[in-house]
Each structure stands twice: as C-alpha cells, then as structure tokens.
C-alpha cells in the first residue's frame, strides 16, 4: 500500500512541484509588495529630506499592514450607471496578468533535492520572453475596461491614454529586446542569461539597455511616464471610481509589474544570477540586482516631473522607436557578419 502511494506521488512529482512553485510565487509577490511600498515611501522621504513612515511599527514597517487592513474594510461603492461585470473584472485582469507574467521569470539555476531536479522558475519556456511580452500586454485590457465601465469621462480618458502609451512603448521595448535575442540566438531567458556568463549585455549593448529601461518605465506606468493616472489632470485617472481592495488591486498589479520589469532587465542586460568577479550565489545576486533596479525606479519618481502627454507620445514615436530600429539593424548586421 505504502509502495503504491510512493509510486503514485513520484509519478506525479512534476505536478506537485508545479503547484508548490505557483503557491510560492503568489505568496512571495503578495508579501513583497507591501515591503516595496514601505521602501518607496522611505526612500522618497530621504530624497525629499523628510522622514517617511516611522510611526506604525519599528521604522514604520507595519504601515503597509495598516493600509491593507484599512483598504480591506473600506466601503466599496459602485455607481449605478457603471457596467458592474466589467467594473469588477478589470482589477482582476490587472492582478492576474501581472502574477502570471512573473511565472516565466527564472531567478536562479536549478538544483537537485531527493533525486528530483528543481528549477528556480515557475515555468521553463523555450519562448519565455515572448510569453512575458504577450501576457503583460493583456494587462492593458484591465486598465481600459476600468475606465470604460466606470461611466466617467476622466476614467475613460485615463484608460485610453494608457492603451496609447503602452502600444507606443511596447514597440521600443520589443525592438530593444530583439537585439539581445539576435545576439544570443534564443528566445529562452535561461539561454540568454547563460550567454552572458563572461560579460553582461549592458557592456556590449548599452544603447539597447537604455532603450529597454526607458520603455520599461513607461510600460509600468511609473513617473515620469505615469500619464494614465495624472491626478493633477484627470482627478485620478482610470481608477477614479474605485475604492477599497479593488482600488488596491491596481496598485498591486503596478508593483508586481515593476518587479517583473526589473527582473527582465536583470536577465537581459545585467547577466541574471551571474556575479562575475565575486563568488556565485545565484538567487542572492539576482535578488540584489532586482532590488537595486527597484530603487532606481523609485529614484526616478522622486526626481523627474511628469511630462506632457503630447511630448510623451512624440518621444516614443519620433525618438525612441527610430533609435531602437537602428540599434536592431546594427546588431543584425554584426550577427550576420560573424556567421
């Protein structure tokens, strides 16, 4: 009987491992976001010569927990003229796509335990980078539906702004990543990291890194590219009519997307989990690089003012897009000439 149960569990080990990985990823992201919110508040306080949260718990660490409890019990109001189904669906789409996108992000080398190889990723896909771009692009539907279903012209304008902005900067994002794909010859993020075993792509492709980073900031709706929100112009953008946990879900999706974008920049340009001159501790070095990039995201928000919308679009279409095309063509020529 025991042998039969053991054999059954062994035969479906991949299934149990997949379920455990999914649970760890979801719990990890949901617990990391409050810490990231605290970090942003503290860093912005330092950048702006003030203290930031320091009252609730030691160093203000419990402030995120207090905010979560407040939002959890806050009254949620849905306007009678709103489309109730789409209104409730929109924040779910934003959070779901953000978490699923992160499932294809590798954050270390595989290891063996009890004779079973465990990969430090949710799913090892041969087309991992395409999967991430495809699923993350679906998140825009949640933002557009939030603005459309609210029956509020300011919310609708915020949603339309977001769709136009993300379409514009996704082109630059994809073309910048394409130069890395061309040089590595693979769509697998693990292969791309292994291709940087001796030298990170930020050294060999600095322009692609800069283009990808700028487009990544715009893709995550972070300042100075947070035009979909633009509370000075649009009350509060696409989530004007939301309150309580539905309101918090949009911010949860934004912060998870920021973590995913930082991880993607690390994998494509910073060598992933490779330490180069220091001893390799794969997950630690990967987490450290992601953490530093998150700090840069916060630094940008504290430093640069929001740019005007027409200049945002002109910057994407007239400057970044042509530059990314030239960059891709240059590296295509280099790849062909070395064959």
SSE-based structural type: mainly alpha
The oligomerization state is single chain
Order of strands, widest sheet: 1-2
Q: How is the biggest beta sheet arranged?
A: 2 strands, antiparallel
> Helical stretch count?
13
Bin the strand percentage.
under 5%
Elements, N to C (H/E): HHHHEEHHHHHHHHH
**Fraction of helical residues:** 55-70%
Radius of gyration: 21 Å
Number of DSSP-assigned strands = 2
- Give the number of domains: 1
GO molecular function, one term: NADH dehydrogenase activity
Subcellular location: Cell membrane; Membrane
Protein name: NADH-quinone oxidoreductase subunit H
Enzyme class: translocase
How would you characterize this protein structure?
By secondary structure, the protein is mostly helical. It has one domain. It contains 13 helices and 2 strands, in the order H-H-H-H-E-E-H-H-H-H-H-H-H-H-H. A two-stranded antiparallel ribbon has the order 1-2. Helix 4 runs antiparallel to helix 5, helix 9 packs antiparallel against helix 11 and helix 11 (244-269) crosses helix 12 (282-303). It starts with a helix and ends with a helix. The mean pLDDT is 86.
């Amino acid at each position: 009987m025991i042998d039969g149960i053991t054999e059954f569990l062994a035969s479906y080990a991949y299934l149990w491992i997949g379920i455990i990985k999914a649970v760890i990823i979801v719990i990890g992201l949901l617990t990391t976001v409050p810490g990231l919110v605290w970090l942003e508040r503290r860093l912005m306080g330092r950048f702006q010569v003030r203290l930031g949260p320091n009252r609730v718990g030691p160093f203000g660490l419990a402030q995120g927990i207090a905010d979560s409890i407040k939002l959890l019990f806050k009254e949620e109001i849905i306007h009678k003229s709103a489309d109730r189904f789409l209104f409730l669906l929109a924040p779910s789409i934003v959070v779901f796509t953000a978490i699923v996108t992160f499932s294809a992000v590798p954050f270390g080398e595989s290891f063996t335990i009890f004779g079973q190889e465990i990969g430090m990723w949710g799913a090892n896909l041969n087309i991992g980078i395409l999967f991430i771009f495809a699923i993350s692009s679906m998140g825009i539907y949640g933002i557009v539906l939030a603005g459309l279903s609210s029956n509020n012209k300011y919310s609708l304008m915020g949603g339309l702004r977001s769709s136009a902005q993300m379409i514009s900067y996704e082109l630059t994002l994809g073309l910048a990543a394409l130069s890395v794909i061309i040089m590595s010859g693979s769509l697998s993020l693990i292969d791309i990291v292994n291709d940087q075993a001796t030298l990170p792509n930020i050294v060999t492709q600095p322009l692609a890194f800069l283009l990808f980073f700028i487009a990544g900031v715009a893709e995550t709706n972070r300042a100075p590219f947070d035009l979909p929100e633009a509370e000075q112009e649009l009350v509060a953008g696409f989530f004007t009519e939301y309150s309580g946990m539905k309101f918090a879900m949009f911010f949860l999706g934004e912060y998870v997307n920021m973590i995913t974008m930082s991880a993607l920049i690390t994998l494509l340009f910073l060598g992933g989990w490779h330490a180069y001159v220091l001893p390799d501790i794969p997950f630690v070095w990967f987490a450290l690089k992601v953490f530093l990039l998150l700090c840069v995201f916060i630094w940008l928000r504290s430093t640069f003012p929001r740019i005007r919308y027409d200049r945002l679009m002109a910057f994407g279409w007239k400057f970044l897009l042509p530059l990314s095309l030239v960059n891709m063509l240059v590296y295509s020529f280099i790849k062909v000439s070395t064959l």
